[in-house]
Predict the structure of SET domain-containing protein.
Amino acid sequence: MKRGFLNTGKTNRIRLNDLSQGHPTTHRSGASPPEHSDANFKLSSFSRTYSRSPYIVSADHRVLDTTSIHFLFHPAPSADLVFVDTLPNILLFEAFMSRLPPLPAESPPFIIRDCGHKGVGVFARHAIGRGDLIIRERPVYVSRPGIVTSSGTFYESALAGLSVSAQSSFMSMRNAQPPVVGPILGRIQTNALAAKPPFGSEVKSHYPALFPRLCRLNHDCTPNTHYSFSTETFSGQLFAVRPIQVGEELTLGYVDLAAPREIRKKGLRAKYMFECTCSTCELPVEQALVSDIRRREIARYFLKMADGKKIPDGATLGEAKQLIQYARDEGLTEALSILLVSALRIARRDGNYEEELKCVVDSVSCVRALEGNEAMTFQAMARRFGLTPGELGQVLDSEEPIDYGRFRPLLR
């Protein structure tokens, strides 16, 4: 999931910097954070405490209605997460989170350390297998998309009820935005990943979320991990899309990876203020041109899939298979997954059983790389053949050619 998504939408925008006077509030005043936090940030003079347990604060007591913004600091009293949304959604979210058990303790297979000109990065502590879960964590900050405000006090209020450790994890993230954006909003715009709330929302776009560890990953145009968000556990997850060696840096893609090199580099310079020097961008000229051609062709195919088309107009199986090979050559696992499903549908349309079977198996293998052994389709395939997910993973990850014939029952 690329970063920077929260700046692209123009709909569902809620303006907070020009609020008019509303009805007087009867909620108790709460102009300072709870004692436990010893916070660096203070609630604004217009904020009021709506509830102490759960700890909910209205962003501006002068306007209180169903669309006004509130801050939920969860769990009370020592909050490590703030959820920013309208009051009805805040209450739904708190009810959901209060039922969730804590995430299981983990022994992280990575370390976060200095990496020179890139600042800090995340590095493998030991070998990590394809499809392995690397990180699972809950965000420290989640916000309704489309909020528009120039007020720094709004964002300070959004952090004021967090514990010191949660505030520190937020403020230790890099801010690549101009000073006019502000230190808090700048960190949100620089680091946010996508989250989806556990309730139906009138907002169709994803919610920007910041994670203490997931947001530490640096960019690569051929990343070795994939980020996804689990609404069921309200956690961000990171999976290895290929084997990762000891000491290797873990990376994500910040921009459209199907774009050619100069467009990717331009986007990274404009948004994140750095020059990409990944191995893909540093390819010799002739190899870089080949890479650009492959990625451009994949992008063109995706463009033809716009508007929900399952099969692009005029698409052939030969074309899809060529693009699948391009995605493999470029190490673009997410693009490969999409292309395999498209090829599967084309093969089914053409009555080509053998190619359909190959695409089914390969696409499930690809899903495992993107979503791990817990992926429902991968677990269903394992059960179908009386294997554990680990055993099926060994079959699909073997250096030997896959015996597709053993999977024939999948299409019966």
Observations:
- The chain has a mean pLDDT of 88.
- Residues 152 and 326 are 46 Å apart (CA to CA).
- The first strand starts at residue 14 and ends at 15.
- Residues 261-411 form one domain.
